[in-house]
């Protein structure tokens, strides 16, 4: 593994505005879900910005031409259940041919360790770029576990996409998987004693599904 991959903060005004709407504890379940979906679309635009292109020959109604298309196999979107699913529809609206890998993990509230309960992914992960999706990067136990699982199934080209990151989570993820670049809309102050991001937005999965 070479060096430490980058952390990119997506400072687009629409993303920042929508993140503020999500942080507001008065946001309804319906509003939270809808805005997360919208941010997923905007993050998909940013995280795919440097995908390699190849040239193909096509025929326009006027003449033949050489034109760019995205090289290689379709992307894999890998949401970490449950909250990662909040990004999925928005991202799929921009990359509708993407494959989807579901990674079922929950964070034990006492130990903060990630517990696996489901995994289903395309068999040819080694040939595809995999975007791992989770709004929250707190201790990074979930992100590390998800990337471990995807690597065990062959994934080699991974990117991690979140909404909010804690400095502790970024440091941990980069220490375990230094080649995986991170996209986030914000890096918050710290984790509290319960492993929640401060100031954060609370429990993303509960706010998305109204389960608190
Ligand atoms: C939340 C969140 C991340 C994880 C982040 O999931 O969606 O997956 O916590 O915390 P970490 O970086 O400390 O691992 P949670 O376990 O609450 O499950 P849920 O999405 O089903 O609510
Ligand atoms: N998971 C969440 O949903 N929120 C946090 O602040 C930390 C972990």
TrEMBL record:
User: Upper lineage ranks?
Assistant: Bacteria, Pseudomonadati, Pseudomonadota, Alphaproteobacteria, Hyphomicrobiales
Reaction(s) catalysed by this chain's protein: UMP + diphosphate = 5-phospho-alpha-D-ribose 1-diphosphate + uracil
Pfam families (UniProt xref): UPRTase
Q: What is its EC number?
A: 2.4.2.9
Q: Which cofactor does it need?
A: Mg(2+)
The pathway that the record names for this protein is: Pyrimidine metabolism; UMP biosynthesis via salvage pathway; UMP from uracil: step 1/1
Question: Which positions in this protein are listed as binding 5-phospho-alpha-D-ribose 1-diphosphate?
Answer: 82, 107, 134-142, 203
- Ranges for domain Phosphoribosyltransferase: 9-211
Q: Which family does it belong to?
A: Belongs to the UPRTase family.
Q: Protein name, please?
A: Uracil phosphoribosyltransferase
Please list the residues that bind uracil: 197, 202-204
Q: Which gene encodes it?
A: upp
State which residue ranges cross the membrane. Answer: none
Which InterPro entries does the entry link to? PRTase-like, PRTase_dom, Upp_B, UPRT, UPRTase/APRTase
Q: How is the cofactor bound?
A: Binds 1 Mg(2+) ion per subunit. The magnesium is bound as Mg-PRPP.
The answer to whether UniProt assigns keyword Cell division to this entry is no
The known regulators of its activity are described as: Allosterically activated by GTP.
């Amino acid at each position: 593994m070479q060096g430490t991959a980058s952390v990119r903060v997506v400072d687009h005004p629409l993303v920042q505005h929508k993140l503020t709407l999500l942080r507001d504890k008065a946001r309804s379940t319906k509003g939270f879900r809808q805005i997360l979906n919208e941010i997923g679309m905007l993050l998909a635009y940013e995280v795919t910005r440097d995908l390699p292109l190849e040239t193909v020959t096509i025929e326009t109604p006027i003449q033949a031409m050489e034109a760019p298309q995205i090289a290689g196999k379709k992307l894999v979107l890998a949401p970490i259940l449950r909250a990662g699913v909040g990004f999925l529809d928005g991202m799929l609206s921009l990359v509708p041919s993407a494959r989807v890998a579901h990674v079922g993990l929950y964070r034990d509230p006492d130990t903060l360790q990630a517990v696996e309960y489901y995994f289903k992914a395309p068999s040819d992960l080694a040939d595809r770029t995999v975007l791992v999706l989770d709004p929250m990067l707190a201790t990074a136990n979930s992100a590390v576990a998800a990337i471990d699982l995807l690597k065990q199934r062959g994934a080699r080209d991974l990117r991690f996409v979140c909404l909010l990151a804690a400095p502790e989570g970024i440091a941990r993820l980069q220490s375990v998987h230094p080649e995986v670049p991170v996209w986030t809309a914000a890096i918050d102050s710290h984790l509290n004693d319960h492993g929640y991001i401060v100031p954060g937005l609370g429990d993303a999965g509960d706010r998305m599904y109204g389960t608190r």
